[in-house]
Every structure is written in C-alpha cells, then in structure tokens.
Design brief:
44% of the residues lie in helices and 19% in strands. By secondary structure, the chain is α/β, with parallel strands linked by helices. It has 2 domains: 86 residues, no CATH class; 188 residues, no CATH class.
C-alpha cells in the first residue's frame, strides 16, 4: 500500500510541476475553497480561533469571509509548494522577493557565526528553504517531524531534497543538528507558531503553550535571532522578510528563554495582524 501511495503521489507531483505556477495557484485556491465547505471540523476550529482573536473587531460576516479566504490561501500555498519545490532559483526569482536580508550577519573569517530564524506558517512557508539561494555563505537548515504514513513522508522528503537546505527529524536526528550548529555558518529556521510544550504566554491576546527551542538554541550557540515571515504579495508571488533582531542579551547578561520567546510571539503576532488570512488558522493554537 505504501508503494502504491508513493507512486500515485509522485505522479500527481509530476503533473502539478508541469503546470504553470499561476495555474497551480488558482487551482489551489479553488480546491481550498471547496474544502472550506467539506471539512466541518477544521472550519469550526478556524472560526473559533478567529472569533476568539478578532470577535470584538470584526463582524460575524467578516470572520466567515476571512475564514473562507484562509482556506483558499492554504490551498494555494500547498499547491504552490509542490510546484516551487521543482523550480530553479532563476525560474522562481520573478515570483519571490527578499527584504531585510542585509540585516543578517555576514560570514567572517574563521568560525562563521550561525543564525536562528524564527519562522511561522505564513504563506508558502516551504520557501524558507530557498534562503540559501541568496545567502550561499550560510548553510540553511530546519527541523521536521516525520509523518506516520511512510509513503507520504517519503514524498515530502523527495520534494525537500530539491534544494540545498538540510532537514533534521526532531526526534531522531538531534546529534546531526548539534554537529552542524557547532560548525558555525548555519541559518537554522524553526517553525514556532504552533502549540508546543514549553510555557504559557499571550499570543494574540490569549495564553497558549509556546516552545523555547529558538531561544535555547540562540543562547547555547551564541547566535543572532531574527524572525523571517513569508508574506503573500499577490497570486503566486511572495516576499520573505527579515524582522528586527531579537535581543538575546541585555547589558551583557543573557535574557531568560521565556522573555526572549515573549518577544518572538510579539513579532509573529504583528505578522498575523498584518494579513490575518495569510496564517494557518486551522491549527488549535490555544489548547488548554
């Protein structure tokens, strides 16, 4: 069964990557709009999340319209992620802007400094792996959690191997990640906007569990810490934008991981409010 799933998925990937990017994006939006009506469970999660965060600012009709657009965006992003994974940087460049990357430290002589990048499920977030296309002096890396279905997991990894980003499975490949961080010259991107064991702190006005991994890594390996957000500019066009540096020390003394992550949450919250439909509202972020 896994073999059948893999080859069916592989055939679908080949077909999607054969189509023009804008056609893929539009088809993804149509598919996402249909899922909004068919997937009652995730629609309810999305509406509950949006009502909790924006119920005092937006009408019920506005929240339903925002939820519907959010499903369209998710469909567009997932479909485009399949297409862009097979595109060269030359092909992708007209569709992707980079903003603020001059803030990131340059590789210096000797042991190059590493960077921790706080990421979120914004836009076509698989494009974070393309950072190395404009910063070849940095080895891009990130973590992932293997899917339970081996065939689907194999498909995902085949897509991700198309670029030079290093992927480490969180539960089994920690030693490899530590070795890479010890070498220096790495930009490690961590998706930090979902429910994760850690501590409770406000996000969009409501307490939620927030992981400490970005702060812990930045302190342990003496890395600069930045947020990088994938904004949707228009259909099949995105901008990767580097935020202001998040300070890990104050007056020469290391800040607590909790204080650092509160500032991280504020950076992510600002990105959500900038374009609410661009975020992943179908996730139960505010679990008890």
């Amino acid at each position: 069964m896994n073999t059948i799933i893999y080859f069916l998925g592989r055939a679908l990937i080949v077909f999607v990557q054969w189509l023009p990017l804008r056609v893929v994006a539009q088809a993804g939006r149509v598919g996402g709009g249909m899922v909004y009506f068919l997937d009652g469970r995730h629609r309810r999660v999305t509406l509950n999340n949006l009502t909790m965060c924006f119920g005092r600012e937006k009408s019920t009709a506005d929240i339903h319209a925002l939820a519907h657009e959010n499903f369209r965006r998710i469909g567009e992003n997932y479909a485009c992620a399949v297409k862009t994974a097979g595109m060269s940087f030359k092909q992708l460049k007209p569709h992707l802007e980079f903003s603020g990357f001059e803030k990131l430290p340059q590789a210096a002589a000797g042991r190059a400094q590493s960077i921790v990048a706080v990421l979120g499920h914004f836009g076509n977030f698989e494009l974070y792996a393309r950072i190395q296309d404009i910063r070849p002096d940095l080895q891009a890396a990130t973590t992932y959690r293997a899917l339970k279905q081996p065939g689907v997991n194999r498909l995902m990894q085949s897509l991700r191997r198309a670029n030079h980003c290093r992927f480490f499975e969180r539960r089994t490949e920690g030693a490899g990640l530590r070795n890479l961080m010890n070498r220096g010259g790495t930009i490690i991107g961590l998706l930090t906007d979902q429910h994760s064991p850690g501590f409770r702190t406000p996000f969009l006005g409501h307490d939620c569990h927030t992981g400490l991994a970005p702060a812990v890594l930045a302190l342990r390996y003496d890395c600069d810490l930045y947020s990088i957000i994938c904004h949707r500019v228009s259909l099949a066009r995105w901008q990767l934008k580097v935020g202001e540096r998040i300070q890990t020390h104050a007056d020469g003394v290391a800040r607590t991981s909790e204080d650092i992550m509160r500032e991280v949450n504020l950076a992510l919250e600002t990105a959500v409010r900038c374009d609410p439909a661009n975020w992943f509202w179908v996730h139960r972020r505010w679990k008890n």
